[in-house]
Amino acid sequence: MSAVQNNWTGAKTLVDPRVPIRWGAFYVAEFRIRNMLKWLSAIIAFGLGNPVLYLLSIGVGIGSMVKQQIDGVPYLTFLAPALLATAAIQGAMDEVTFPTIEGFVWTRVFYSMNNTAISSKQIVDGVMISAITRCFLQVLLYELILALFGAVPLGSIAVLTIASLLAGWGFAALMLSVTVFIKDDDGFFAIVGRFILTPMFMFSGTYFPLTALPIWLQWIGWISPVWHATDLGRALSYGHKIEPWLLVVHVVYLAVLGVIGMLTAYPQFKKRLAE
Amino acid sequence: MSEIKEEIMIRAKGLRKTYGDFVAVDGIDFEVKKGESFGLLGPNGAGKSTTMRMISSTSLRSGGELEILGKDPNLFGPEIRAHLGVVPQQDNLDRELKVWENLMTYGRFFGLKGKWLKAKVDELLEFAQLEEKRNTKTDELSGGMKRRLTIARGLVNEPEIFMLDEPTTGLDPQARHILWDRLFRLKEVGVTLVITTHYMDEAEQLCDRLVVMDKGKIMAEGSPADLIKRYSSKEVLEVRFGSENNKSAAEQLKGVGDRLEVLPDRILVYSANGEKALEYITKLGLHPITSLVRRSSLEDVFLRLTGRTLVD
Amino acid sequence: MSLINASIDTAISIAERRRGKLGSALSAGRPQAVFMRNVYALKSSNWLVVLSGFVEPVFYLLAFGYGMGKLIGNIPLPDGTLIPYAAYIAPALLATSAMNGAIYDSTWNVFFKMHFGKIYQAMLSTSLGPLDVAMGEIGWALVRGFVYALGFMAVVAPMGLIHSWWGLLAIPAAVLIAFGFASVGMGITSYLKNFHQMDWVNFFMLPMFLFSGTFYSLRVYPDWLRTVIEALPLYQAIAMIRGFTLGVIDGALFGHIVYFIMMIVLGLTFTTRRLRSLFLK
Q1: Is the CB of B187 inside 8 Å of chain A's CB atoms?
Q2: What is the largest CA-CA distance in chain A?
Q3: Residue to substitute from A102, A206, A207, A208, interface C, most C β-carbons within 10 A
């Protein structure tokens, strides 16, 4: 006789459905974060290495060729909030896109989660919780480096963190609601990366003010979450002057992206898991 | 009355599932009692897997009634799933995790405590004969080991109903027998088993009762022995005359035994006594290249019910 | 029956004819078979992905050349002529995209074929040898590099960013660069075990891209750092192409070309050895 048979008590007494119904999203997040911890050293190395590289090459290197002040501050100070917003968005996005494809296609782990008491909504929430966690870690590391370079005023770090998390959440939610449709990888990341993300990161007033673009290209900034997050970050960091209504627009735009993304993702996850 | 009601684990009435115009499951009725081993038998595309996914409360039904553990899966999916164990047709183990980590993480999804799970993982590894593979990455396991691990994983919450979709497809004979043995043991502790298969011998071995499905409908229901008795003769004589002569030979065989089935490569003669039928054929002056007398199986039941063989 | 026998005879006799020839243990002399496989795969692949490799450097050119260019102004050449910032970085972007394309083909693509597609296993169970595989894959990377370089030049030349007829040589130069990176990249890939290790490839590529004089002159660095960066292949690549497009032809250019020829010879030797020990155990 095996121990399994001897010790069998049965799910009726063993598993209280109310526990996973209540905490399921955190079990999903726990699973994702455990996975992430395996690459923690890499995440930290990249998290620290990336800002150092960009600040040195673009901030200091290219900055040395920018003779005048931009927006009333040195180029490095002008650049820092943009790099932070980019990193936050990138970090959160990586933690929703790859896990979603993995969950539906590569390991199909979402299906096995859904075979337990975990619901589709909890999977969405759990993935998002882990993405925000990753985003938070990334933002902290970035701010550490920015502070060491003297690129951000120390007093602005707390508000910058909140703004970055908002941006990360908004964009990650949007990506989540898109990634759920992918049947297999088939170059999706290459296409989105090169046709949407690269131009978004470049033409959103990140390396140079949006106004340096011809007016017929400035719309890229207006719809880009990176621009909203960057402009917001600049106002919070070195006091870049913006109209109060624009400040509200930035926050609302990012929040609306997040809400729409989540509300789209919930039914789509449910649909795909039931297919 | 209430006691009898509790005994019924699954109840389906007029259960339907459609995908657009395609009808995958077309109004089926069945009940599964506690401790029973219930089989869904049929060829690929018969609607078995769809039925399984509706029972495991991960696919919403399009029509009819369905009750699992006394609850409606459309409304109480998570509650029901908390007490089910599921082994999908395609192993969906986490390839990046080690064997024990797969069991551990799956248990966490039920909200089971880490400490309790540690002990459970050991038990399950022993049950699945995977103790030595404990720290192996799932990717590196053989097909049979993966299947055993998926089964062990489905047991982590000690399910009341254990659902296995084609549990032994793609396994070698020895691996299949090991699995069958494990499933018997589960039955001994009172777990209700629901199994789909397109292997006749598996159905005969494992199932107390089964339904034969084809094109989304239930063609017949009963115990394996019962079905054979109802839809086939006691014995079957298989004769081959060579692929070109089977047809003309069949003409002459008309009236031999209870019934004839002419397949492309052979003729099946259904009769209570196969040897006698063979003698009679020889007397007719026919000389088959090979002949074989065997007991009727579920394969014959299926052939009778649908006019097709199970594995095309 | 006879048909099958005949074809077996031919396969054996082809193999026999090659026996004893130089390198016959490594190669059946048919890398084009590997190359053709990629041509077939391309037909059914996603064309947007193929196109995207060309679009990326153009985006960089627009953002940095024109956007940043507004903040930076003109750049003086050693002889004192002033050129727009876009003309300064265009050759660097061409060199970088040649590198990226070759590295992508020889790492991600090769890694996938090695571990998931098991494509090489199938290839090597025929009469093909590891050198055929290596040359076939690298040849593929080169053709791709050539097409991309052509496309990039077609965009930047009308913009007036090519200052000399020597600029035409930037196209073969880009192919030479791709050859160098592809031959080394494939050998490195053979050491990688999972996708996460692939990130480390990027970990070296990104700083090389950012610091190799792509966007600004190495003069901002201290001397020792300058020497280190000048030894890196991407710096060599950028300097070579910049020399051609700006029409600055001197002895250093010859040095860059020799650098890449060395890189190709060493890379191929290394990669073939690795493939042999990996597949023909």
Answers
A1: no
A2: 82
A3: A208
